[in-house]
Amino acid sequence: MELFGVIITGIGVMFLFLGNLGILRLPDVYNRIQAGTKCTTLGAVLTIMGVGIMQPAWLWKCLLIALFVLVTNPISSHAIARGSHKSGVPLCDRSVVDKSEEFEEYKEEK
After folding, report:
1. Which of 41, 44, 34 is nearest to 12 (CA)?
2. Angstrom distances, CA of residue 71 to CA of 50, 68, 74, 75
3. Do residues 78 and 36 lie in contact, with contact meaning Cβ atoms separated by under 8 Å?
4. Per the confidence metrics, is the pTM higher than 0.85?
5. Got the DSSP string for 77-98?
6. Which of 25, 27, 46, 89 is most buried by a 10 A CB count?
């Protein structure tokens, strides 16, 4: 069982590394937020669950922590992205679609 926990933790660490690499390489804040959120959420959950598998006494605590990460990480990244957009942080030159303007106009009509 410990080998399975080490494998799960190793996969989680790989996702965390790839998320950090995406944060370094992507062109603007919105793409970086996506890389940071998707990869680090999965990486953190896998790493935490790997620790829970290796230490069965911690399994329930690790499940609660993983659930907390799954709920709060996407919400916080959404808040950061929305705040960045409202404060005028520009998109990358290569970005082709910005649907948030249409959404704001739709909200004002209602």
Report:
1. 44
2. 19, 5, 7, 7
3. no
4. no
5. HHHHHHHHHHTTPPPPTT----
6. 46
